[in-house]
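Duplicate of #3305? Posting structure anyway:
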């Protein structure tokens, strides 16, 4: 990514990476409260998020959160129901972060962020079968 584009995308990439780190942390807690099929979804989400994180970090050209960080979950996870609610919420919180990367970047970074946003929306919907409306840069 050219230096000027990196300057514009830098803050959005950093926030997206921090959001991914928080979601991965949350999924670690969620995994202890869901069924076997839910645990499979958790593992898949963590693997996808790790790949997206690496792509964004490579685009940024710097490490973010080099030291392990602890996060506060949006609501306490006490059972399967609250675990599922938190999983959906984590994904919904990632979408605007990825959309900010889309708005501030070009090329492969923009494409990666578009895919990340779509995958987050899909994962959110998979946790909660109730249809939700999601605004993306392509659909205001």
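Output from current build:
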């Amino acid at each position: 990514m050219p230096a000027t584009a990196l300057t514009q995308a830098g803050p959005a990439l950093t926030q997206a990476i921090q959001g991914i780190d928080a979601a991965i942390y949350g999924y670690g807690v969620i995994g202890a409260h869901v069924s076997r099929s839910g645990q499979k979804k958790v593992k898949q989400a963590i693997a996808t998020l790790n790949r997206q994180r690496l792509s964004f970090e490579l685009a940024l050209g710097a490490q973010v959160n080099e030291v392990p960080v602890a996060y506060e979950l949006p609501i306490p996870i006490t059972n399967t129901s609250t675990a599922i609610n938190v999983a959906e919420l984590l994904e919904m919180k990632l979408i605007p972060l990825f959309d900010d990367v889309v708005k501030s970047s070009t090329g492969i970074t923009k494409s990666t962020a578009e895919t990340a946003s779509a995958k987050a929306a899909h994962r959110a919907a998979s946790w909660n079968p109730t249809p939700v409306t999601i605004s993306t840069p392509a659909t205001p």
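Confirmed duplicate; merging threads. Residues 75 and 86 are 7 Å apart (CA to CA). Residues 3-127 form a domain with the Ferritin fold (CATH 1.20.1260.10).
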